[in-house]
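REQUEST ID: PR-0412
SUBMITTED BY: lab tech R.K.
PRIORITY: routine
TASK: structure prediction, single protein chain
INPUT:
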Amino acid sequence: MNKDIKAIIIGGGMAGKLVAAALAPHFTNVQILEKDEKPNQKKEIRPGVSQAHQIHVLLQAGDQAMEILFPGFKEDMISRGSIKIDSVQEMAWFHYGVWKQRYSTELTTLLQTRPLLESYVEERINLLENVTYTYGVKVENILMQKNRVCGVLTKQETFTADIIIDTSGAGLLSKSCIQKMGKNISEEKVEIGLCYATRQFELAERERDFKLKLIYPEPPKQKLGGTLSIVENQKYIVTLIGYLNQIDTKEIKTEEGFLQYAEKLALPDLAQELKDGKSLTETKTYQIPHIVWRRFDHVDLPEGLLVAGDSFCRVDPVFGQGMSVAALEALAIREFFEASPKQKNLNILQKKLAKIVAPVWSMVLCEDFRYEKVKGKKPFGLKFQQWYVKKIFLLSAKNRKIYDDLIKVMNLLSPPTILFKPYIFKEVFKRTTN
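STATUS: complete
OUTPUT:
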């Protein structure tokens, strides 16, 4: 442990908590400053976590990262109610007009509500003697001396620090800090007009051959999709998604309106389940007007500053990768300080985080830009990428070997480049010429 460096984390959401776990072995004092007040109840949802009502899924890579950060994580979560599923056998996935294959694998996914996951992680954080989690403290400014950070300013007081990690979500404090140095942060922003609408249900008791069902919209003709997932206590979370402002938040607010939107999906599966079920909550909506990658990796940061989580990059949550990306970033931070415990120039680390984000961002843009009215800068070679990836999606419904590789990419276990293996390339073009 480095005994003369103190770290401050701005933002106490999941990314902030995971970063704290990563830093704890290497710093005498790690302080998390969270602007929300402390929840009155253990599993109450904080006001700043408007996305907390949706299902929270950890992909295989995120699962593995969490296990390293919190040894015993999987067993603990399952004992508390998380549902462990076979990511292929127990997931029914309707995609591009066809159902994916179902067969037994060793790939697993944990399904749970956000309160269950976050309360567990916070308990583990509270066991770390050198980590302080403070609620109700809003950071107003990052303080600097010359070209290095030295602390943060809040309404209550000034906190000094040698290392500051911004996981606040918006990244505005870090942008302001860098602008004071006469630099600008470029942004890659894509307007997707996404809306989530979620209700929790008690469904009729019957045999189901799945624990998670995904009905994805097929762009550009379909803009509505939905998911149904079992969570703790034998409850089900149903989330309807709509791109390009396809969901009217007033219409979907009522139970009747929610069902009407479910009936608009490409398949009747979710609507049929809901007709026989009992709604346990009101509709909770969550809007994502745009996704954004703030390119903090393209500038020389002030010494001691790092930006992570949604402050760095906010991806389309439909693909369920955000939580796992945050866990992988935290793991990269831990490994960096293991190798260089006294390092204060974090530009190298910021670029390492960018390498985690880059393939995920590319995958997301490939799909989001299938809608012509989605606005943003399109990457080079997008048309070919979209054509090629769609071929793989369709092949994966029939070819188990290709689906195995696709699942590894979707679970962030392998880079997307594995989808260009010679045998896959051959199958793609054989299908094209037949």
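NOTES: The two ends are 62 Å apart (CA to CA).
REVIEWED BY: pending
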